[in-house]
């Protein structure tokens, strides 16, 4: 009996030992896993995501607007593990970012995102109409060489962004999270990730070899990554017009009004967006009724008759929105581990609707640069390599930026006779048709964004204006106005080109970064 009891005790002891060992192993493995995925930062109660384990994040993207959501899908489709942190995941409600030029649509197709303009009641845009003092001219996009689906698109900005977010989130390796990024995490001059606050208020840290900041025009992170020189030349007052038709269907309309242009374009099958430009940073007060009075007395008489009643009805309805028009040339400070994109990096006046075209073009450039890289962990080598991004993007981005800034200044009314002659010459030059309209509209549409073509057409307008002044008989006064016209044209375009960078814009092949090879893959 004693032998049997001793044997039972030995079996029980062995079983207990095995269970204890299994329990300790399980606890240790769980602790390691939690430490890897949700480690407590030593300096203060923030959890860490994207640690050193197999589920490590490759790229953190700050912002899921137009640039951020498109970039997340593009990089995710290439197999990158992407973590997107967006302040507000609800549908945005903006009055810009609603018109995508044909060049931008081609880039959207290249990224595989063209279906994002479907099922949102987006409208095809086939060109522009210019209206001035009762005259009008129609400028059609040169689309003859492209597939029949290629055209501009106009839509509600929020609907478009939500479609892109949904498409990005459909990829298993893309994680979209609502949270507010408060700072970049820097160590030894390198950006290692971001610190952010979740929707519930929890402080977290996300680490990745590359952080891409796309947090929009009001970015609070850009100062670390660039030297921002933000200019606010004017403000847009936005209204939605209903129950009316544009004079030229499926065309954007630019009204050369006094004191500055008015934009109209469809954003759905039943709505037309009207954007009234007001020069300067101050707009009439809406609370006191000054805004409604200004729109009815100054703007309404210059609105085409087809839109007038709907314009007045929109004012009476009270759904008036305003936003500052910002421009900011790209002035990057190359920083290991981080990159700026979208409106956080580069802005231009929205008159020409070129912002999304630049954003999608930049994403194509960045995707092509990152594609051959299997490893993003060598931050210094990656930073030097990605300096080529800033050069490769320049010809397209600078052309669209310069055109937007120059056209806005030309289209604004002035008490200066030389400036008004330039404005009149621009309208008449575009009205000539043929190469005189096809060249500029190809630039505007993003289909042929060549800097030399832009400069050639800009000064052709100035010379055309001087020629008009010399007819029928030149006089000292007319010659003086002509000289001031040319001088004014130089004063408009050369400062913009200088800010964009002459060498990178016109001679990118002379910049060493243009030829920078990818860092060696491990």
From TrEMBL:
Pfam families: NAD_binding_8 (PF13450), SE (PF08491)
A GO MF term: flavin adenine dinucleotide binding
Membrane topology: Multi-pass membrane protein
Location(s) in or outside the cell: Membrane
UniProt catalytic activity: squalene + reduced [NADPH--hemoprotein reductase] + O2 = (S)-2,3-epoxysqualene + oxidized [NADPH--hemoprotein reductase] + H2O + H(+)
Coiled-coil features, chain-numbered ranges: none
Entry keywords, A to Z: FAD, Flavoprotein, Membrane, Oxidoreductase, Transmembrane, Transmembrane helix
Cofactor(s) the record lists: FAD
Function: Catalyzes the stereospecific oxidation of squalene to (S)-2,3-epoxysqualene, and is considered to be a rate-limiting enzyme in steroid biosynthesis.
Name of the protein described by the UniProt record: Squalene monooxygenase
